[in-house]
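Thread: Newbie trying to understand structure tokens

Hi all, I'm a second-year student working on a class project, and my supervisor (Dr. K.) asked me to get a predicted structure for one chain before our next meeting. I've only ever worked with sequences, so writing a 3D structure as a token string is new to me. If someone could post the tokens and maybe explain what I'm looking at, I'd be very grateful. Here's the chain:
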Amino acid sequence: MKVLKFGGTSMADAQAWKRVLDIAGATGAGTITVVSATSGTTNSLILAAETARTGSLKEAQRISAEIGDKHRKLISSFFALPEVTDRSGSQTCEQHIAALISLLDNYLLGIHTLGELSPKSLDAVSSIGERLSSFLLAECAKAIGIPAVWIDAAEVMKTSSEYGKAAPDMDALFERARRVAHHSANGRYPIMGGFYGSDASGTITTLGRGGSDYSASLIGLALGASAIEIWTDVSGMYTSDPRFVPRAFSIKELSFSEAAELAYFGAKVLHPATIQPAVEKNIPVYVKNTFEPEHPGTRIFSDADADSPVRAIAFKKDITVITVISSRMLLAWGFLAKVFAIFEKHQVSVDLVSTSEVSISMTVDKKTRLDAVQKELEDIASVKIYHNQALISLVGKNMMQSKGVAAKAFDALAEFPIRMISQGSSDINLSVVVENEHAVEAVLALHDTFFPNLPSPVNA
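---
Reply by user tm_fold:
Sure, no problem. This is what the structure looks like when written as tokens:
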């Protein structure tokens, strides 16, 4: 039994939906498919909600109508395909679209009336994309002879009530996943939406943006899947972001720890939380290209061989560096605890940490709540804030046990001012922080240093 997850770009139009169903059908009876909303839909839903909150209900309803029309056109195009043998599901699709768009309009009216968009309301609105795409895809599957069954993720993916970033209730998930396993064991093709679920009271929740990958991994864990396949618009995980590094190439194999590190430090192909559920039962994860299904992509598993000390270079821009300076740190105990207690109080997550005798430098992704953090930090130390920074991470298994890696890295970065340096607690990450404006040039220099040759044909 395999779990296949398809992202928004894989769900863009009728031809893409047919391609998704071909891949699922070729994988075999019992395959479980988890899908994102169609490309751009979640952004449109959030825009509609924000527009309703700020006062223009008419404009919000126009966006809602566009979402409905987009899905109607998609269904109309799909049911016009010559491969469709049963067109009776077209009306069922229309009814489902009408019901969810009506529900969306009711949500928008409530948001407009109150002038407030709570995390709970935003979850209800933003989940509609997956509630549309998963149901409609199941009906399209039936239309071409695939015995699909729609599974409402709200009935299976039980979570906490932390709206916007709910945590899965693993006991409830394992129990409710049995109904998915039942359909799979009987040769059907369960199709469900990722990203959303529901709490103990049945209220819709979401796992956070990009949470469809996480949903697929959790379902794979609950069902003891033989593999989890993440289908996207690139052929695996690359040595760096190919949009900025033309010579980047697909990596054949990665360890779980390497892939998790890359996802966390900027690789956009995987949601950072995807790997952990797979690790628990040692389920291999494959990252593959919906538009090039014959490409092997990247296999992620526990015993991946490392053919070089540096496997990939990830980066993310627009981070913030916070430096705390105090002579009270010197030979003192408890100072670090005070600093991190402030971050915990304001729910600000720290990525990297670098310390000296009298200072601590930290990186954070989000600028929200930073004013409050800075104010409290200034009660115990001098604080400097550096915005518009970029974090660059070299990732590789046993990287720090290999001679010359750091020397080569800093030689490549000789022309760029470095704000911060940090080695991860494991031996697979060496990170630096530079100004945003230098990020791409620095990554290109590092890539040319560690991957000077063109990729082998199998990875090209």
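A couple of things are worth pointing out once you decode it. The chain is about 40% helix and 20% strand. The first helix runs from residue 14 to 27. Feel free to ask follow-ups in this thread.
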